[in-house]
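User: Here's a chain of 113 residues. Predict its fold as tokens.
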Amino acid sequence: MRVLAFEDHYDIEAMLVAGGVNVTGWTIEQRWNSTDALEHVQRFAPDVLLLDHYMPPLTGYEVLERLLASEVNRPATIVAMSSDSAKNEAMVKLGANVGVVKFELSTLDLWFN
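Assistant: Prediction complete.
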């Protein structure tokens, strides 16, 4: 599985491992800001895209808006993973597959299928 995370404070791979997710054989790339976000999505071609809302210079919502309006291939799964559930709900309404408070990221079923 290829996972691309836009998260500026917490190490996503470490969070998944600490939560009991076996990431062996996965390729996980984390971007610590949203500069050139669409270029990173296009280049990395993730299966799963993780978007934090509160991230400079563009919010996760803005990255998602731009992605959905672009010619860049949409990842199979887009996860809104802000610490603010209202921001996650907004991204789900916009087109994300699922929203989860980031500290519960490892509980998502998609990691275990």
